[in-house]
Design brief:
This protein has one domain. It is built from 4 helices and no strands.
C-alpha cells in the first residue's frame, strides 16, 4: 500500500530535489568543470619548475592538496584531508548527497 503525500508536501519535495540538483550542478561547475577559471579568479597559480627545484634543493617535500591534474572536487591525491580542515568532510558529504539525489 502506497501512502499519498499531501500536494504541498509533494510539491515541496520536488522543489527541494530540483534545488539540490541545481546546487550540485553549479557547485560542480565552479569547483570541477571550471576549476582552471576558478583558480585564476582566486589568484592560484601552479608551482613553476624553478619553485619545484628550489623546494627539492632546500630539502622540503611538496605536498599537493590538489594534484596538478586534479580539481577541488576531484583532487587526485591520496589523502584528501591532508591538513585542510573540513575539506575531506565536505567532499564525503558532497559525494553522499550526489549519490542520494541521483537515486531519487
Amino acid at each position: 500500500m502506497q501512502v499519498e503525500l499531501p500536494k504541498n508536501l509533494t510539491s515541496m519535495t520536488n522543489e527541494l530535489k530540483e534545488t539540490i540538483n541545481e546546487f550540485i550542478i553549479t557547485f560542480e561547475q565552479v569547483f570541477d568543470k571550471d576549476w582552471n577559471y576558478t583558480k585564476e579568479q582566486l589568484g592560484i597559480a601552479e608551482e613553476t619548475q624553478e619553485q619545484k627545484q628550489n623546494t627539492i634543493e632546500a630539502g622540503f617535500e611538496s605536498i599537493f592538496f590538489i594534484s596538478p591534474g586534479g580539481t577541488f572536487l576531484n583532487p587526485k591525491v591520496e589523502d584528501e584531508t591532508e591538513d585542510w580542515g573540513y575539506r575531506g568532510k565536505l567532499l564525503i558529504e558532497y559525494r553522499k548527497l550526489k549519490k542520494l539525489i541521483s537515486e531519487l
